Amino acid sequence: MSEKGYRILMIEDDPAVLELNRKFLARRGMDAISAKTLKEARNLLRESFDLILLDIQLPDGSGLDFVKEIRAVSAAPILMLTGLKDDADIVAGLLGGGDDYLTKPYRIDELHARVVAQIRRSEMAQTLARGPITLDIVAGRALLNGEDMLLTPRDFSLLQFFIQNENRCMETNYVYEKIWRQPMAGDSQALGSAVSRLRKKLAGSGYTISVRYKNGYCFEREEA
Q: What structural domains and CATH numbers belong to the chain?
């Protein structure tokens, strides 16, 4: 995949750093969205991003603690930016769910290299698993307890998308456009049929696709 089209969420309270990073990433065709506080970031996490740049020290909380919130709604790689040089802080961030870190000040070309490396590593993942569900990304096969779920290519892409966005409620238009690569134009029947098929295939997995009024679909664990 080209670097063009990557969506990056930058969570950083320093306006100068935000603007420098935004301009640099934009010149390489990336769409960099900024949040100066955790409150702003929480609202933006309803959207889909290819990578999250996370400052550890923010005015309304700790980025280290926020990693857990991100992981509850997004599988995007997290590259932490920190002025803290204590090994314990860095280790805590990585063990908490972060994928990489850069200490400030950093070279902008190194930031670029790490952003691209993390996104490409994420894209090249060959398997994706949730409980008894395993997706073979290369072969395009979904297994439940080791048995082929016999999904069509589009249903496989839809299930992969849902798993990558576990616990995140997404509007029908958004899901349709991500999978069908075109506007839904008011016709939700195809998506509804695909979700219905997947629900049946997921029986016994411990997971389901819930329908939330005004919020669309949400892939989540079934209630006990």
A: 7-123 (3.40.50.2300), 127-221 (1.10.10.10)
